[in-house]
Amino acid sequence: MTAVGGLLTVLMLTGIALVLALVTPDRHRSLASGGTSMGIGIAGIFTGVAAITSPPKVALVIPIAVPGGLGLDPLVLSPTPLGGVFCIVVGAVGAVAALYGIGYAHGPAASRTGWSAFALFLLGMLIVPSAGDVVSFLLGWETMAVASTVLVLSDHAERPAVRPAAAWYAVMTHLSFLTLATGFALLASKAHSTTFARIADAGITGPTGIAAFLLLLTGFATKAGLVPLHVWLPRAHPEAPSHVSAVMSAAMVKMGVYGIILLTSSWLPAVSRPFAVLVLALGVLSGSYGILQASITSDLKRLLAYSTTENVGLAVTAVGVGMLLSNAGQPEVASIAFLAALLLVVSHAAFKTVLFLGAGTILKATGERDLDRLGGLARTHPVTAWTFGLAAMGASALPITSGFVAEWTLLQAVVHGDGRANTMLALALPVTLGLLALTIGLGLLTFVKAFGMAFLARPRSDAAASPSPEFTSRPGTAAMGVAQVLGALSVWGLGLAAGPIATAFSSVLGYSGMVTSEMGGLRLVTIGVLDPVALGLLAVGLALPVGLLVLVLRRRVPRRATDLAWGCGGVRTSPRMEYTATSYAEPLVRVFGEALRPSRSLEVSQLGDDRVLESRVAFAQELTDIVEDRWYAPAARWLRIVGDQARRIQNGSIHRYLGFSFAALVLVLVVVTLP
Amino acid sequence: MNPLGLLKLIARNGRFAEPAPPAPAEDPALHLPNSLRGSVQVRHVDTGSCNGCEIEVGAAFGGVYDVERYGARLVASPRHADVLAVTGVVTHNMVEPLLRTVEATPQPRVVIAIGDCARDCGLFAGAYGVAGSVSDIVDVDLTVPGCPPHPAAIVAALRQVTGR
Q: Which of A13, A173, A396, A571 is exposed most, by the fewest CB atoms within 10 A?
């Protein structure tokens, strides 16, 4: 199948999915639409693979005619190899999420609107990396933005928190569209064309180039959820249905990274050169700030959302490091950094899908997403526990997972960059390394917390102790399980087959020869070797004696009954005494208190007039996003004031409106009569 | 205290433990578990004692009567114990903790009721806060009479279990 054929299949399947979503009765809609959406995803994967293996010689060209004779170039859809990588990411994530959605979607998410929006969402995300011109890029971008907004709104009738979240998302994503459209308009007017090839050839520089660069960077950074433009992300991800959160987090934000890579490498390479430090700073700041917020929150989906900011931040850090290094004339190491960016994108897509799907299962089974009220789910949900655990290993960059390979490659690039080249590099590389170490360490802590609090120990609430019976008896549960297992296997597989994948990516980036594959392992020429197979053998070698010992001992000594910790004869060990997510993160909140500014209240009620005995102690902690409080809240206040002022103009008085019409007419007549 | 001072103290005082009486004869009627011979870990449970028995138990484990030389040692949790040494009448509030403690002690275990109160409520029989004697609540393997029992009697009972 060629890439263009794949795209045509995607378009056709989207049409079928829309029709099926509209005509199928309620009972079968999830199966029919979910199945077709899965087909869209698989077609997306084929498109991507075809684009990488045999870059298309033909393109899907759709001429457009705009009244007024603007003379726009036709729409060009022809994925480049780089776009192909992102097509695969979108396709794979979309297919797995759609499979999960067959069992998961219910209520508004499984309605006609819900499934139509899901299909259009996938279509939009597949068009963006396939686009060869500005107009189709923006069309895909807007389809993606609008469809995902509709999906975020799914549960607005049930939970009031959904509405402000969707409003934040809609505003931010459309501000991003606005800056993108303006930036592209500047580029297109300079290049006298809307196709990316001509824009790249034009070699735009000067003030227009800088303005366009900054506008486009802002737009892409908003979509990618980079600090300080991330505020929509921790609101929209938790409130969307989980299969949608998975796609948004694992695939949609990657479009921002795709945009940044294209912007800096293809559209405006000359202009972006001095801004390498800006890109690096955006990435590093997002990485450390995102994971810091994730490590202290106790809302599971909010944690995953902030971790998305972190991972996208890491990918952008890799791009920034690559730009700095290639500025300094070290193309070999720079190519490793760009490779790390792609590996980070792919690995994050794999594990974040599984994590969000796992969070969905937890939410469905218990109705809770607050880690302080979960616990002990490994016993009732073994499949979710294993897959979530494996994905959490990926997210904490532990060996034999995709996350390890990606972060190892990034660290190799940072470590092997030669800081002696210039002062900027000598300053930036160590600082980056330090912040990366902090980010990765906090990431480990975050996911130990997420997995441990949700799945281990005793249930901390009745909801966690007794999963809802209607959930376990639903027929779609099997589809959810299969989707989770598929995702978890891909986390593992990407880690084991690091070599071939990295080789393919480096040829995508045009750096073939920099990376070779050795027995499935990864060899960065002149830098280092990573051999997951050897690591795997080492792990087996270490685990085998321990496992044998356990087996032998189990046979020798009869199995002993285990019980709760000794409570000195009283009923002293209740689940309330367990470590919670909040208490686990307390030292961090203390250490980073200045940066996080949590608001805490401790309320002690005395027993009668007694000064010593206390009847009740209530502790509440509210974690806020300092960026939101300091920057966005004042901006919103200011906008409100301006809006109130503007309302004076439109006060409902018919006289004033007639006056406006007359003034406008006079103005038009004056303008027309001017020579 | 510095080590040298400690050594000096030991040299000045010498051994002051009572001379060891002959080991008690084995009583097959008691059905004490053979696997506990040699060494046992003892958990002391006060279910409502006047603290007289506690003083005697403390003396039994002290330097003079020194039951540790016969292989009995006090521990801090029933999970570590082989023997439960229960003193006092069982008050209403202590019924549940006593049951839990016996349940938490691994098998094979020995329950010793120390003192008259633990045997048959002694002085407190029929008092309003009393649920009964220890044997009313759990199975008792050995009893030590006396109000309070002499430390030597407690030592003798524990030597029955250790067989030393």
A: A571
* Beta strands per DSSP E along A526-639: 528-530, 599-606, 614-622
CB atoms within 10 A of CB A274: 12
How many structural domains compose chain B? Answer: 1
CB contact under 8 Å between A569 and B77, yes or no, is no
B78 Cβ under 8 Å from any chain A Cβ: yes
Please report whether residue B84 resides in a domain: yes
The ipTM estimated for the assembled molecules is 0.71
Q: How far apart are the first and last CA of chain B?
A: 34
- Whether B128 maps to a domain, the answer reads yes
Q: At what angle do helices A423-455 and A382-395 cross, to 10 degrees?
A: 170
Task: Kindly state the average pLDDT of the residues B93-106.
Answer: 92
Report if residue B11 sits inside a domain: no
| B104/A570 touch (CB, cutoff 8 Å), yes or no | no
The percent of residues above 90 in pLDDT, for chain B, comes to 73
Q: What is the pLDDT of residue A473?
A: 56
Q: Give me the residues paired with residue B111 across strands.
A: B84
CB A362 within 8 A of CB A455: no
Instruction: In whole angstroms, give the CA distance from residue B163 to residue B32.
Output: 10
Q: Are A180 and A138 in contact (CB under 8 A)?
A: yes
CATH code, domain with B116: 3.40.50.12280
What is the interface size between A and B, counted as CB pairs within 8 Å?
14
CA distances from A607 to A17, A610, A615, A619, A620 (A): 64, 6, 5, 17, 20
Contacts of B77 in chain A (CB under 8 A): 566
Cα–Cα distance for residue pair A252/B54, rounded to 1 Å: 72
The region, left, alpha or beta by phi > 0 then psi within -120 to 50, assigned to residue A574 is: beta
- Tell me, yes or no, if B98 comes closer than 8 A to chain A by beta carbon: yes
For helices A331-366 and A300-327, what crossing angle results, to 10°? 170
Which of B79, B96, B98 lies at the smallest CB-CB distance from A566?
A: B79
Q: Six-digit token pair at B4?
A: 């040298």
Cα nearest neighbour of A564 on chain B = B104
Matching residue, tokens 């000096």? B8
Q: Maximum Cα–Cα distance for chain B, whole Å? A: 56
- A430 preceded by a cis bond (ω within 30 of 0): no
Residue range(s) defining the domain that contains residue B50: 34-162
Q: Are A569 and B100 within 8 A, CB to CB?
A: yes
Residue corresponding to tokens 């589809």: A479
- Taking CB atoms and an 8 Å cutoff, what residues of chain B touch A566? 77-79, 104
Residues of B within 8 A of A570 (CB-CB) are 97, 100
Shortest Cα distance from B25 to chain A (angstroms)? 34
Q: Quick check: A8 pLDDT over 60?
A: yes
pLDDT tens across B13-63, in order? 888 888 888 888 888 888 888 889 999 999 999 999 999 999 999 999 998
Residue A163 backbone dihedrals phi, psi, to 5 degrees: -65, -50
Segment A214-235 mean pLDDT: 93
Q: Which tens digit of pLDDT belongs to each residue from A107-130?
A: 888 889 999 999 999 999 999 999
Spatial separation of the C-alpha atoms in residues A624 and A602, rounded to whole Å? 17
The answer to whether residue A568 neighbours chain B at the CB level (below 8 Å) is: yes
CB-based contact B43:B77 (threshold 8 Å): yes
Is residue B129 included in any domain, yes or no?
A: yes
